[in-house]
């Protein structure tokens, strides 16, 4: 297991490097909420999920829906590291003619299971996928990642009710609880807290963890798999901009790309090549 953690940490470091480089090249995008979710997506794609890079639409695969679609850079980086497409594609982020646009598009990007961007709709789709799995008697699992600011969308709670009503124990969702959104701190804009108690009230099994701790993430996913008759919500406490000192816990980095000089500083801190 210790070796697994070392490998996951190295992959996460590469993913963070990719995020910084691609956002610098694009001149726009969302670094803060991409960096905060690195450990979660790295664990899902390199430890947990059954995926097939040779057949991205394999009907038996596990599904992942990035409900907070603006954090596309972390998903693109992880998919590229996994081998769904060439890493050189990352240089085209948000550029005309590139497959990698500002939000994930399932029609163009291998490995993307759902086009997302309008907040609240991703978790609703994940619920639908989980219902389909039950109806088709398939054993694939569905995972989704929401932002804490996204919980301000009413559609999220309609989806939460449906997931509990239909006892979707094949659905595991994460809240990237970094406490910040584009306009500032979530508690000042429209507080979603207490997140854990709210999902419990909606009938979910809830686990609270450190979202940057690989062991905690792995254990939480295992607990979710062993939970029957309920969907599971993993409330992952994270740091927006994790890994880059001048981005950490700063709302201004929700949707601002680094300059060339800032990119160099960030890569030094992450441990990457300048």
UniProtKB/TrEMBL annotation:
Molecular-function annotations in GO: metal ion binding; transketolase activity
InterPro entries from the UniProt entry: THDP-binding (IPR029061), Transketolase_CS (IPR049557), Transketolase_N (IPR005474)
Cofactor(s) required for function per UniProt: thiamine diphosphate
Residue ranges of every copy of the Transketolase N-terminal domain listed in the record: 11-268
Keywords from the named record: Metal-binding, Thiamine pyrophosphate, Transferase
EC class: transferase
E.C. number(s) listed in UniProt: 2.2.1.1
CDD domains: TPP_TK
Similarity remark: Belongs to the transketolase family.
Protein name (Swiss-Prot/TrEMBL): Transketolase 2
Source species: Clostridium homopropionicum DSM 5847
Lineage: Bacteria, Bacillati, Bacillota, Clostridia, Eubacteriales
Name of the encoding gene: tktB
């Amino acid at each position: 297991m210790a070796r697994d953690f070392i490998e996951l940490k190295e992959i996460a470091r590469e993913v963070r490097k990719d995020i910084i480089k691609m956002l610098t090249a694009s001149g726009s995008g969302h670094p803060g909420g991409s960096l905060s979710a690195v450990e979660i997506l790295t664990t899902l794609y390199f430890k947990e999920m059954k995926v097939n890079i040779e057949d991205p639409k394999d009907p038996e695969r596990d599904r992942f829906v990035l409900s907070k679609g603006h954090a596309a850079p972390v998903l693109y980086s992880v998919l590229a590291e996994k081998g769904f497409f060439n890493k050189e594609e990352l240089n085209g982020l948000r550029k005309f003619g590139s497959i990698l646009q500002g939000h994930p598009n399932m029609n163009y990007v291998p490995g993307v299971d759902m086009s997302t961007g309008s907040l609240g709709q991703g978790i609703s789709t994940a619920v639908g996928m989980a219902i389909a799995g039950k109806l088709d008697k398939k054993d694939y699992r569905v995972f989704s990642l929401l932002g804490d600011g996204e919980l301000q969308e009413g559609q999220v709670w309609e989806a939460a009710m449906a997931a509990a009503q239909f006892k979707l124990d094949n659905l595991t969702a994460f809240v990237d609880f970094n406490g910040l959104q584009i306009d500032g701190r979530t508690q000042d804009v429209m507080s979603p807290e207490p997140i854990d108690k709210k999902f419990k009230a909606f009938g979910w099994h809830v686990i609270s963890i450190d979202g940057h701790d690989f062991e905690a993430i792995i254990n939480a996913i295992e607990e979710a798999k062993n939970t029957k008759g309920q969907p599971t919500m993993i409330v992952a406490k994270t740091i927006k901009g994790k890994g880059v000192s001048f981005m950490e816990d700063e709302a201004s980095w929700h949707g601002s790309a680094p300059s060339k000089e800032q990119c160099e500083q960030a890569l030094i801190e992450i441990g990457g090549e300048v």
